[in-house]
Design goal:
Keywords: Antiviral defense, Cytokine, Disulfide bond, Glycoprotein, Secreted, Signal. The protein has six helices and no strands. The chain has about 160 residues and is mostly helical. The protein has one domain (about 5-20, about 40-100, about 110-165): Growth Hormone, Chain: A.
Length: about 160
């Protein structure tokens, strides 16, 4: 059987702390950059998700966050050391999630295809926003703040999963 280690949740908290430390601009200096990306809170409702579905949500969230901050070709205004630490932690989380095949997560459970699609669309809106704003420092600041939502929701979801045992 596949179980997420206890420290997986700690890695999420670490990512949240690093994102908070990466803040470079005040929200007021970027007023004309505000955007509602339509964060899909319902996808993270752990009470309704089966384990395979929850693992799928965690995987998509980590993979898309890693892609945004660690592979997106852009002049992100981040402190390099903090960014490298964030990317390293996200990579470690991805490795652990990928070592946990969805088929082993629960017999008869079906991955949340609709939830995955909703999450992919959410991250696509974020990527398009960055492109439209030409990867400006203010656009990145809006994205940094936005990405804290799915990372926090993932942490809560992980905690619910562990408490269900």
């Amino acid at each position: 059987r596949c179980d997420l280690p206890q420290d997986h949740s700690l890695l999420h908290w670490r990512a949240l702390m690093l994102l908070a430390q990466m803040r470079r601009l005040s929200a007021s200096s970027c007023d004309n950059y505000t955007n509602d990306f339509g964060f899909p809170q319902e996808v993270f409702d752990g009470k309704a998700l089966q384990k395979a579905q929850a693992l799928s949500v965690l995987h998509v969230t980590n993979r898309k966050t890693f892609h945004l901050f660690c592979t997106e070709a852009s002049p992100a205004p981040w402190n390099t050391t903090l960014l490298e630490e964030l990317c390293s932690g996200l990579s470690e989380q991805l490795g652990r999630l990928e070592a946990c095949p969805l088929q082993e997560a629960g017999v008869g459970e079906v991955p949340l295809v609709n939830g995955d699609s909703i999450l992919r669309n959410y991250f696509q809106r974020i990527s398009l926003y960055l492109q439209e704003k030409q990867y400006s420092p203010c656009a990145w600041e809006m994205v940094r703040a936005e990405i804290m939502k799915p990372l926090y929701a993932s942490t809560v979801l992980h905690k619910r999963l562990r408490s269900r045992k």
